[in-house]
Design goal:
The protein is an all-alpha fold. It has one domain. 82% of the residues lie in helices and 0% in strands. It contains two helices and no strands. The longest helix has 37 residues. It is elongated. The termini are far apart. It is a single-pass membrane protein. Belongs to the SecE/SEC61-gamma family. It is found in: Cell membrane; Membrane.
């Protein structure tokens, strides 16, 4: 590969990227909102669960080991 070919290869790469982007099956706005709410809900549930475990272990540690 010659150094002079590099700009052409870069242009070809971005043309191919554009073609591939057109092939993507993008989700609808409704689907995006639904999945976003699911992710937020699951994240909150996991955070509450881990926070609850932290409180329980902190209580146990303070009650039994750190007297």
């Amino acid at each position: 590969m010659r150094i002079g070919d590099i700009p052409n290869k870069i242009v070809d790469f971005f043309k191919e990227v554009g073609l591939e982007i057109k092939k993507v099956n993008w989700p609808s706005r409704q689907e995006t909102i639904k999945y976003t709410l699911i992710v937020i809900g699951v994240s909150l549930a996991v955070a509450l669960f881990l926070g609850g475990l932290d409180i329980v272990f902190q209580y146990l540690l303070n009650s039994f080991l750190l007297k």
